[in-house]
Amino acid sequence: MNNKTTIKDLKKDEMLTLKNIEQPKEKQVWLKSHYDRSTKKFVIYNFSDIGKSKLIDGSKEIFTNFTF
């Protein structure tokens, strides 16, 4: 029963998944970091590897409220 929302609606350091997964593994969980003005995208980083990050649009649908 994941809640679908957009990345721009999350607070900094909130956990999320990019797919609707009830019980995600560590490598499937991401944390919201900050907004990058130069690319006009939000930065997320991987829970298990903080060196791994992605840029995603604010309108991208993400999922919260999962068991971890």
Which shape, going by the Cα principal axes?
Answer: globular
- Over the alpha carbons, how many angstroms does the gyration radius reach? 11 Å
Q: How would a textbook summarize the main sheet?
A: 4 strands, antiparallel
Which consecutive residue ranges, at least 5 long each, have pLDDT under 50?
none
Kindly state the number of beta strands: 6
Strand order of the largest sheet: 2-3-4-5
How many H/I helical runs?
0
End-to-end separation in angstroms reads 13 Å
How big a fraction of the residues is strand? 35-45%
Q: What would you call the structural class?
A: mainly beta
Helical content stands at: under 10%
Quick tags:
68 residues; four-stranded antiparallel β-sheet; 0% helix
Brief summary of the model shown:
By secondary structure, this protein is mainly beta.
Q: Can you walk me through this structure?
A:
There is one protein chain. By secondary structure, the protein is an all-beta fold. It has one domain (3-64). Helices cover 0% and strands 40% of the residues. The chain contains no helices and 6 strands. It has strands spanning 3-6, 15-16, 30-36, 41-46, 53-56, 61-64. Strands 2-3-4-5 form a 4-stranded antiparallel sheet, with no helix packed on it. It has a two-stranded antiparallel ribbon with strand order 1-6. A hairpin with a 4-residue loop joins strand 3 and strand 4.
